[in-house]
């Protein structure tokens, strides 16, 4: 057993209102640059919908992620190492920019420089790839937002394959929900495995998957190897870029910018301890329906003293182990079992999980005069406006029973709380019906419904004293540590610490003071809020 | 020997090799961020699908042919029993084929770059120089193979002329007379090739050194520590 810590995320789809604030703040922080215009490290898709890039979930077309070979051994779906090297001059599985969209801007200056005329001046769209005027824009970010164009397009969504009769685009029968997506920071990342240069890596300390901008040679296999299509190719720099999980913020104990600015407060960030030695075996689970449990088994219970001891001896700091005990991600994914991984069948063991949406069914029941009582809700889950089969294709490798189980738990939570708060009744039967204790149901309610800032984000700071030690070493010999080989006077005083970072070539180390200050401010605010009771 | 000849046949090769070596050293240390193939496949994949593999595989084969052609003296090949006639036809047909495949791929790539707005706009000035040099070198090379090795009754034995001069460079005793015994087209190809090598480290051609063979032997999932043990690399 080799224990590692992973920063994971859970998104509660019940509460996502599709406002795209996460996408916009992410874009302004990370991809507001030439060559990155088309990149959305965070995007919000309307489901059912074509997705971004179009039909990204169709792995028969894009060949991302892993599969099992005839002997049951894990291999990249796009082919092995030799095949990759032989097709390096033209990646057969690479999406084109048109599968995302052609980025454009407007000649805004026209609006104020146009001469006086009878009609209002118009800012025309200019392609950011060619600079030419685009007379007509055919596709763009969230082009099919809120089921726009659904009658023609809805069945281009790969998840509707085989369940077309359940997924209707007519107004009365339509259903939809939002799916915010970032990089999954997988335990078994196929992008890392696909990178021939070895430029992509997973950080040992927190599991964040990054691209080393100095090592990337632009071979593009990470882009096609990621089944979620969350690695992008910057066509100006010729390098791959991806969601960084806002690591400068995470290292300071702050949530990612998409989470911080989430209006619906749907996001949770916390640590999960896992056994790195069991990752490959879990990803090789023969039956796709067993992958969810296999991944849950890779997670380790931080309440188990043996796990804590082993974690400490594997070098995980004490405050991180404590944070893992309070992790909302572990609670939702493992303890309450209401969060599910996105497309577990890709075998990447993704670490951004989702609580499937229950609200539409409750809404439709309540308009019919029912209360959200499990007696009404459980049978109705079968008749939900969001077909269980559709959610199962998204979050459970097609296993509808998994989805029903989660929805029953969520319904039971609502039923229990309603009886307690509205009727003043104490009914143990509801929680028992879904195999949960009342304490667990009420804890889950606090986490999902009250959703306090400090409960949603339990992020221990990175141990920067290690970096501090490096700073002390600046200009000295790196071999002079205890037990080290000792003096190497040959190295001069100009020796410098090689600080890793985003866009690191020849850049100065990232100055984190501002981030740190903001973090303090945020914490003070939170504390004041707790005292005032107004948070 | 006049000064022009000394410049072309003695000084240029060494200047080019020095630029080549120092240029790579400098670029690798200072410009890792721009060390990339700078692929445009994302922008337009229509022609690239066949043209890029044709160009690259053809070029790799052609490079192999050059190594055999100018590095191995005829005495060695005849020593192991390869006759003059066999060598000529082998070099002509294999080399001609490699050159032809390279040329077809290259024409495809140039056509794509010229006709696709997106790709043309992403082309830098250095790219234009690269393309110009490659155009000249490939055309000359294919023409040499075609007219002086294959479709001729008196094939030119470049291994006795250009090859001798090339090898003499390594002994720091350039045999200029041998080079001047070659037809003009060979001389042009050789001189322009030196310019090409001198230019190489500053172009995006450097991605050629990054063929990721290490991928064959490494574990699939790579981990890194945020703070690696005692990095003392000086810049």
How is this structure best described in words?
- The complex is a heterodimer of chains A (535) and B (235).
- Chain A is of the alpha+beta class and 535 residues long.
- Chain A has a domain at 6-102 and 140-260: Alpha-Beta Plaits (2-Layer Sandwich).
- Helix content of chain A is 36%, strand content 12%.
- Chain A is built from 24 helices and 14 strands.
- Chain A has helices spanning 21-30, 59-62, 81-86, 97-100, 110-113, 150-153, 190-194, 221-225, 247-250, 257-260, 279-283, 291-298, 305-313, 318-325, 328-335, 359-367, 374-382, 388-395, 400-423, 428-433, 438-450, 453-456, 465-473, 513-532; strands at residues 3-12, 43-47, 66-68, 74-76, 104-106, 125-127, 177-181, 200-203, 209-211, 231-234, 239-242, 267-275, 340-341, 352-355.
- In chain A, helix 17 (374-382) runs antiparallel to helix 19 (400-423) and helix 19 packs across helix 21.
- The radius of gyration of chain A is 25 Å and the shape is globular.
- Residues 486-512 of chain A have low confidence and may be disordered.
- With 235 residues, chain B is mainly alpha-helical.
- Chain B has a single domain (3-210), classed as Fumarate Reductase Cytochrome B subunit (Up-down Bundle), CATH 1.20.950.
- Chain B has nine helices and one strand.
- Residues 229-235 of chain B have low confidence and may be disordered.
- The chains are: A alpha+beta (535), B mainly alpha (235).
- At the A-B interface, helix 3, strand 8 and helix 23 of A face helix 2, helix 5 and strand 1 of B.
- Strand 8 (200-203) of chain A pairs parallel with strand 1 (223-224) of chain B, so a sheet runs across the interface.
Task: Sum up the structure in keywords.
heterodimer; A: 535 residues; alpha+beta; Alpha-Beta Plaits; two-stranded antiparallel ribbon; 14 strands; 36% helix; 12% strand; globular; B: 235 residues; mainly alpha; Fumarate Reductase Cytochrome B subunit; 9 helices; disordered C terminus
């Amino acid at each position: 057993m080799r224990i590692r810590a992973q920063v994971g995320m859970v998104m509660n789809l019940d509460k996502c209102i599709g406002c795209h604030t996460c996408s916009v703040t992410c874009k302004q922080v990370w991809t507001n640059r030439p060559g990155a215009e088309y990149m959305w490290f965070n995007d919000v898709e309307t489901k059912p919908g074509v997705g971004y890039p179009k039909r990204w979930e169709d792995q028969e077309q894009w060949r991302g992620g892993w599969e099992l070979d005839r002997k049951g051994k894990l291999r990249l779906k796009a082919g092995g190492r030799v095949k990759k090297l032989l097709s390096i001059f033209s990646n057969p599985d690479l999406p084109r920019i048109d599968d995302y969209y052609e980025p454009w801007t407007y000649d805004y200056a026209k609006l104020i420089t146009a001469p006086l005329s009878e009609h209002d001046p118009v800012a025309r769209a200019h392609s950011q790839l060619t600079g030419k005027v685009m007379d007509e824009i055919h596709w763009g970010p969230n082009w099919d937002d809120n089921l726009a164009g659904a009658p023609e397009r809805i069945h281009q969504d790969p998840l509707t394959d085989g369940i077309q009769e359940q997924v209707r685009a007519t107004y009365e029968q339509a259903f939809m929900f939002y799916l915010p997506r970032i990089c999954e920071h997988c335990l078994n990342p196929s992008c890392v495995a696909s990178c021939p240069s070895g430029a992509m890596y997973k950080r040992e300390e927190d599991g964040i998957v990054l691209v080393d901008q100095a090592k990337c040679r632009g071979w593009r296999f990470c882009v096609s190897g990621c089944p979620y299509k969350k690695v992008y190719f910057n066509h100006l720099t010729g390098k791959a870029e991806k969601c960084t999980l806002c690591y400068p913020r995470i290292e300071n104990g702050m949530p990612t910018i998409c989470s911080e600015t989430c209006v619906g407060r749907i996001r949770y960030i916390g640590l999960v301890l896992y056994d790195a030695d069991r990752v490959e075996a879990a990803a090789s689970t023969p039956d796709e329906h067993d992958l969810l449990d296999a991944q849950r088994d890779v997670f380790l219970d931080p309440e188990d003293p043996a796990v804590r001891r082993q974690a400490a001896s594997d070098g995980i700091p004490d405050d991180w182990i404590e944070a893992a005990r309070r992790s909302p991600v572990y609670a939702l994914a493992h303890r309450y079992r209401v969060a599910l991984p996105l497309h577990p069948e890709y075998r990447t063991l993704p670490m951004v999980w989702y609580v499937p949406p229950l609200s539409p069914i409750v809404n439709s029941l309540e308009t019919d005069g029912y209360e959200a009582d499990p007696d009404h809700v459980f049978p109705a889950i079968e008749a939900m406006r969001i077909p269980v089969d559709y959610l199962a294709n998204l979050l459970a490798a097609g296993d509808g029973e998994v989805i029903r189980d989660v929805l029953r738990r969520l319904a039971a939570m609502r039923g229990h709380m309603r009886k307690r708060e509205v009727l003043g009744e104490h009914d143990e039967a509801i929680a028992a019906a879904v195999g949960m204790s009342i304490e667990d149901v009420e804890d889950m309610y606090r986490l999902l419904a009250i959703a306090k800032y400090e409960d949603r984000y339990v992020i221990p700071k990175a141990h920067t004293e290690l970096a501090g030690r490096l700073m002390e070493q600046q200009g000295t010999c790196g071999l002079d540590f205890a037990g080290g080989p000792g003096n190497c006077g040959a190295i001069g005083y100009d020796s410098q610490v090689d600080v890793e970072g985003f866009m690191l070539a020849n850049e100065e180390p990232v100055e984190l003071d501002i981030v740190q200050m903001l973090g303090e401010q945020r914490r003070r605010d939170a504390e004041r809020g707790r005292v005032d009771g107004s948070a | 020997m006049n000064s022009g000849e000394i410049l072309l046949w003695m000084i240029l090769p060494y200047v080019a090799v020095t630029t080549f070596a120092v240029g790579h050293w400098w670029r690798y240390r200072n410009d890792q961020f721009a060390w990339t193939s700078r692929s445009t496949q994302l922008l337009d994949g229509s022609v690239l699908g066949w043209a890029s593999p044709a160009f690259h595989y053809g070029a790799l084969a052609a490079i192999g042919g050059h190594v055999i052609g100018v590095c191995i003296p005829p005495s060695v090949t005849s020593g192991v029993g390869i006759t003059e006639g066999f060598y000529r036809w082998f070099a002509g047909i294999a080399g001609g084929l490699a050159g032809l495949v390279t040329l077809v791929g290259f024409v495809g790539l140039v056509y794509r770059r010229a006709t696709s707005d997106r790709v043309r706009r992403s082309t830098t000035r250095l790219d234009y120089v690269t393309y110009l040099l490659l155009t000249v070198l490939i055309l000359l090379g294919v023409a040499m193979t075609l007219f002086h090795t294959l479709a001729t009754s008196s094939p030119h034995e470049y291994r006795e002329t250009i090859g001798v001069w090339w090898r003499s460079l390594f002994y720091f005793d350039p045999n200029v007379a041998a080079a001047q015994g070659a037809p003009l087209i060979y001389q042009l190809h050789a001189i322009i090739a030196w310019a090409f090598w001198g230019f190489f480290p500053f172009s995006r051609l450097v991605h050629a050194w990054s063929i990721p063979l290490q991928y064959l032997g490494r574990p699939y999932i790579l981990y890194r520590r945020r703070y690696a043990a005692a990095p003392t690399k000086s810049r």
